[in-house]
Amino acid sequence: MDEAYIRTKRENLIRVLKNAGSVLVAFSGGVDSSLLLAVAHETLGSRVVAVTAVSEIYPKREKEAARNFALDKNIEHIVLPSKEISLSAFAANKSDRCYHCKRNLFEKLIQIAEQRGIACVAHGANLDDGKDYRPGLKAAEEMGILAPLAEAELRKDDIRLMSKQMGLSTWDRPPMACLATRIPYGNPVTVEKLKMIDEAEIVLFGLGVEQCRVRHHGSVARIELETSDITRIMQEDLRHVIISKFREIGFLHIALDLEGYISGSMNRMLEGESHTKDSKGVKQ
User: Is residue 20 part of a domain?
Assistant: First the structure.
């Protein structure tokens, strides 16, 4: 990808944002929403507000990263308690869990936007997001949430490169996802499980792993790591630290997935179910 290609993509994104007029950005602090927020702020100035949802389903480290990013750029930043766990349709953890989560969040964001006279609510969905099972996209489309990155035809690689060229610290940040994605579909989401997962992942990141997921299978923690970390984590001293810390957290058995980290690996459970895409590319 050359500079002209990325420049054209950025011009497309700026055009989309100018057409919006004023924007409330659903800001997680991840790669996508950080780029969206940065370009929106450069384009629209004070007509941009960032809102970050906080609850038990989000890793603690994400809230701090989002706060620091907005503070560094002097962007108005609202922290919103989203309380997903109180929704029975979410806590039941069926295959449409993300739909109920996103609909709950977008309803709150729309209310804030209306109260502040902001024309649009936008999120960081990009052109690649339709490749996996993402029922949250259906909620966004139903509620008229803008996806400026996708509209500007930005893919994940484009977003990382543009972020790097803009000097954003988030350009190489690993993919982020809510902690509920670590719990197999059909197993209820509880505060206790989410706390165990978050604490276990903090242990692994503290040991210097590049990326990880701790999948909660009852008394078993299944660890997914980048393949480059699998051999290192098996060193005797690190292995004993993990076993000790995970048992303190509440896991009885600790397993290392030899396949390594795979984004959306829990969606394999949906194979055989009917999740055909509609005309807009959103799986049903």
Answer: yes
CA dihedral 224, 85, 61, 269 (to 10 degrees): 20
Q: What is the pLDDT of residues 4-18, one digit of tens each?
A: 899 999 999 999 999
At 262 the pLDDT is 84
Residue 278 pLDDT > 50: no
**Domain count of the fold of the chain:** 2
Residues 215 and 222 sit within 8 Å (Cβ to Cβ)? yes
Does 169 score more than 60 pLDDT? yes
Domain assignment of residue 48, given as a range? 3-166
Is residue 47 assigned to a domain? yes
The pTM of the full predicted model, rounded to 2 decimals, is 0.89
Cα separation of 71 and 75, whole Å? 6
User: What are 214's two structure tokens?
Assistant: 């701790």
Sign of the dihedral defined by the CA atoms of residues 97, 98, 103, 108, in that order: positive
The torsion defined by the Cα of 169, 99, 125 and 133, in degrees rounded to 10, comes to 100
